[in-house]
Amino acid sequence: MHINFDFRKVMLNTAKIIFVFLIAASTLQSFANEVTSASKDPNELLERLKKRFNSVKDYTADVQIKVKVEFLKIPLTKAKIYYKAPNKIKVDAKGFAMLPRSGLDFANTSMLQTKYDAIYIKEELVNKVNCSVVKVIPSEGGEVVISTMWIDPVRNELVKFITTTKSNGTFEVYLTYDKTKPAQIMPISLNIIFDVKKIQLPKSMSGDITGETARVEKTDKKKLTRGEIVLNYSNFVINKGLNDALFIEAKE
Amino acid sequence: MINLIQIELSKVFSRTRTYIGFIAIAVLVIVLEIAFYLDGNRFLDFATQSLKDSFIFTGNLMNGYLVSFIVLQGLIIHVPLLVSLVAGELLAGEATGGTFRFILTRPVSRTRVVLAKYLVACIYTISLIAWLSLVSLGLGKLLFGTGELIVMKTNMIIIFAANDVLWRFACAFLFAMLSMCTIAGLALLFSSLVENAVGPIVSTMVVVIVLVVISTMDVEALNVIKPFLFTTHMNAWKLFFEEVIDKKSIIQSALILLGHIIAFVGSTVYVFNKKDILT
Asked: Does this complex have an ipTM over 0.85?
């Protein structure tokens, strides 16, 4: 049996296939390199984040505050929050309201305005969002010692950050955005988790004279406990121009 | 019976001594509220200093509700004395004045006389606590305004919304009335035993002070008798200022106080019925 076999034609076709494959592979490789190098550059990630948040010069918003601390029983409170870049914050409430000292600057913008060193760590999934993890260390000292930020590189959103400060300990902040409004820069919810000192009031002040609570105290020797505050924002009004005079009364 | 009560009421409220309690409460509350007006924020800052490391506070916590709550804390100390001032004199005063025979010659049983006197003591006590609530809350609202109520326990802080406070005060004052009516019953019992008005007043205060000390001492051996002391249950008004109201404990304390009232008044009836009136 004789089989027609054109060796030259087969070799030519094989060479063409290999050539196309090599071109495709190198194209894909360079594309992959471009994408990964862009997300792995921590400074670029932070600059994109800063640019996004810096577009917000001021805002007002209604906020609902829920405090979840073991030894604090506080009802749900409502307040109005005013912010003016870079670091002016004022809270207005009809009645009593309690806000955390740390974490209200949810974009870490005040820290990112100073000089810092940034290190890319890894990619990690947070609430089903693939994030680039970046550690930021301020070079000029200041209140923040180190901050770890989880950034969504696609939407340039800060999803989570953990910041260690000199005087207020370490706090974690989880940010939730309105997925139905991708253009909205501000998060609709913040979960701030932080260390808080347990209270121990003298009986002369508390009037708690039955002695039962004293027994509970003695067995519980930890002085710090974890607390959580959930802030739900609504009715954002952004970049309408807030006067500095509005922030003068509130020094804190 | 109503006539008897009316007569006893007019006797009690025609005496100057009766108004000492109202004046004392007014002066005490005014002094306390002025003190808090001048320096109350420092007291609050001290209590919340550890929290201020972690939190920013806004709003008016130093308000009339907080001051009234603090005034109520002192209830166990000053009000029993003011109650026993009147209740202790109800029977002993008749003996001192030699008016027992006038009362008892009328066709009214000794039991009714005692019950009428006890009811009048209760009316006086209720008026005193109502006056305390009016002055402390009224003046507090005037000087400090209203707002959320912060209740500070040894290892917990509870903050009640402004619209969730007044009903708690109403219940607390009602319970305080029951507590003080128990004191009135004790004072009346001592009053039936002697013929000198000072004795019952002092005896009532001594008993209250000793039992309060026992009720508040954190000693295992005393825990057996504490649930049976009326002074242990007098502070149950504080249960209205908990995040979750312990209804069972409140009802239990109220029943124990009622039981003491029945015991004191019952004993007074027994003693008075057996008493030989010689003056």
From this structure: no
